[in-house]
Amino acid sequence: MVKRFRFSSHVILCVFTLCMFLVPCTAQSKYPEKPINILVPLSAGGTADLFIRTIAPYMEEYLGQPLIIINRPGSGGALAISSVYGSKPDGYTMSFANLPTLVTIPQMREVTYNPEELVYVASPMIYEYILFVKDDAPWNTLEDFIAAARQAPDTLTYSTPGNGTTNHLAIEWLSKREGIQMRPVPFPGNPQSISAVLGGHVSAVNASTAAAVSSYQAGLLKPLVVLSEKRIALVPETMTLKDKGYDFYQYSNLGAVFPPNTPEEFRKKMEDAIRHAVEQKDVQEKVAKELFITIDFKDGNAYRAKCEEYRAIWGAILKDVGLQMKK
What keywords are assigned to this protein (predicted)? Predict the structure, then answer.
């Protein structure tokens, strides 16, 4: 009887020890257990904001918890990334990130975060861009606009959603290529930059499609050129820069990042939630027919790799136009 009791005691001890290891794993597998704060790096009504609010209900459906969407525009999107960088790596604060916050802005000026240390969750979409002027502006083509800038250097202006954004840098590249001077005017987001051209405060705006669609369809904006790689259904007759012989197109994406050291389990759960959302048929239809955005899902590894690729590409452009920070 004594031997049997000792054996039983050892079994009980082993089971208890095993349970001690299993409890934390079980707790982690319940993530998320409360609402998650989602930062939007640009202003309400812009492309990022509209897209995130379109996919959020399906992310909530997958996660079983509400998402608290917080617009935190500023510094071309860098303010939101600074906030998430300093947050706890507990899976309850995430920020969407426009490409410049991770790729171009840290090469232009000092920032309070290291983009390479962030945890890259996924990228669900790429932006589409068009150079617009007001409907009654005297320029009807890109060539007209360039000729006017050449005749009156540094008088034409263009609005952007922030210095260092690809909206800004694409026009800087074009100006450098054509030997002209135009002044950028930064705003907190695309809606404000579009309002500036509609109000006659600037000459042109390089805007993303989702932010510009309502003003264009109302007849208030005139497209001069598509800056994205391919023609856009919103303005099917408008040529791209590549159509016009330029060896350039404007690329940027929207992705999501967690603070450094966020556990892989949390990252993967959020990646799967974003994937689930963009796979929904009604999301795909709305994005294509109303926002004119291209869904191009990339998992965390592919998203990081794409940012690293464009860190070099946009870095070369920054150097060429004289905007790269001197080290």
Answer: Receptor, Signal
